[in-house]
């Protein structure tokens, strides 16, 4: 699938914008702060209803306005459709597909993007929450219903933690303990589904990660990934005091996950009452990335970490390509080439050229392989100036 036309109203620094896009690689070029990333952020937002840069939608609405509109015309083979979102500065957003209102979680069924941005270096070097968010976002792309499961799990977790905090404050009652069992049942049911889905996803993603890393670095470096699951405790999966799980690289049935989760939760009860918080469950899990059988977070250099994070997103794009009914995702690379040496720039360009549509931002054309220079769209001060050829023609006319 690819975007054929993008329309913006009051989005970031764009009062209004209209842009025709063709399949293949397209470059948004301009000095920093002109609005290049805002364009690709708008496109990515349509597939997830969230920004990869900020946590609040209010930052997406142009200053002084109450709402913003992002609309895209899409094509997948002979099929065409439109997707649009009205982003409210306060209140609920509204999403539509070909003019018909839809729920936000349904959008991944129609349109997928995979974004790599400089912030994604945190996937390798950052906190577990960032890696969980990456896995869960990819889960929602493949099975939108899982987004609701994760939301419900977080709701149950919040209620259970509130009860544990009350217990810690010495306000325990038999009724309170009975209520805790009710929350336990829901936590285990929802958490088991999330854990099983995450483990299955990591298993499918792992070979793509290894292949993408080899293609990018052109060396025999082994890149891998495993889940650390707090709810799975056995002789081969010892837990530390903080609840971080051991590496899981074997297949477990849903019943096995549920049974071990329940046992682990029971074992942790006294510590949970002491701390007033839930110590076991998907909210405490992590993903370990491996480079040559060593944890990448600890041993990878800055350049290796950058290449690893990029390879992870390329692996995600390949997985979406294989499993999505809408074909290729729109692959978005935000300011990535500047951090790569010449050889890896060329290898990255070769790795993405087969995708139906690739959108790239850059501040300096010299950072890109020369064969991409003619595919440039210039951006300046919230205005789309046109393609390189159009801008050159205008300058010649003047």
TrEMBL record:
This is DNA replication and repair protein RecF. Residues 3-362 form the RecF/RecN/SMC N-terminal domain. It is found in: Cytoplasm. InterPro entries: DNA-binding_RecF, DNA-binding_RecF_CS, P-loop_NTPase, RecF/RecN/SMC_N, RecF_2. The RecF protein is involved in DNA metabolism; it is required for DNA replication and normal SOS inducibility. RecF binds preferentially to single-stranded, linear DNA. It also seems to bind ATP. The gene is recF. GO terms for cellular component: cytoplasm. It holds the Pfam family SMC_N. GO terms for biological process: DNA replication; DNA synthesis involved in DNA repair; double-strand break repair; SOS response. Belongs to the RecF family. Keywords: ATP-binding, Cytoplasm, DNA damage, DNA repair, DNA replication, DNA-binding, Nucleotide-binding, SOS response. GO terms for molecular function: ATP binding; single-stranded DNA binding. ATP binds at residues 30-37.
């Amino acid at each position: 699938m690819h975007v054929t036309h993008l329309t913006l109203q009051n989005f970031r620094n764009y009062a209004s914008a209209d842009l025709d896009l063709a399949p293949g690689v397209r470059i948004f070029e301009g000095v920093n702060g002109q609005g290049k990333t805002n364009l690709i952020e708008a496109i990515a937002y349509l597939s997830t209803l969230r920004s990869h840069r900020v946590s609040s939608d209010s930052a997406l609405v142009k200053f002084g306005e109450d709402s913003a509109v992002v609309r895209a015309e899409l094509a997948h083979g002979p099929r065409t459709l439109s997707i649009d979102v009205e982003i409210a500065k306060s209140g609920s957003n509204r999403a539509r597909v070909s003019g018909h209102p839809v729920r936000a979680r349904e959008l991944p069924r129609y349109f997928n993007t995979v974004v790599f941005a400089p912030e994604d270096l945190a996937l390798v070097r950052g906190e577990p929450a960032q890696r969980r968010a990456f896995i869960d976002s990819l889960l929602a792309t493949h099975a939108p219903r899982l987004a609701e499961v994760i939301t419900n799990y977080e709701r149950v977790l919040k209620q259970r933690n509130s009860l544990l905090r009350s217990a810690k404050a010495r306000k325990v009652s038999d009724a309170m303990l009975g209520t805790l069992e009710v929350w336990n049942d829901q936590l285990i049911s929802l958490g088991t589904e999330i854990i099983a889905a995450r483990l299955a996803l990591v298993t499918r993603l792992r070979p793509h990660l290894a292949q993408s890393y080899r293609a990018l670095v052109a060396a025999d470096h082994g890149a891998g990934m495993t889940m650390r699951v707090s709810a799975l405790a056995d002789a081969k999966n010892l837990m530390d005091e903080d609840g971080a799980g051991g590496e899981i690289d074997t297949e477990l049935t849903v019943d096995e996950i549920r049974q071990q989760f329940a046992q682990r939760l029971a074992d942790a009860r006294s510590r949970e009452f002491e701390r007033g918080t839930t110590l076991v469950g998907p909210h405490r899990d992590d993903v370990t990335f491996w480079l040559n059988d060593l944890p990448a977070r600890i041993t990878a250099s800055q350049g290796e970490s950058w290449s690893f994070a990029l390879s992870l997103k390329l692996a995600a794009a390949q997985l979406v390509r294989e499993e999505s009914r809408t074909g290729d995702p729109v692959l978005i690379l935000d300011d990535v080439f500047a951090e790569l040496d010449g050889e890896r720039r060329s290898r990255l360009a070769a790795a993405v050229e087969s995708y139906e549509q690739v959108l790239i931002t850059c501040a300096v054309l010299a950072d890109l392989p020369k064969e991409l220079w003619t595919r440039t769209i210039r951006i300046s001060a919230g205005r789309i100036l046109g393609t390189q050829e159009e801008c050159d023609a205008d300058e010649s006319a003047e």
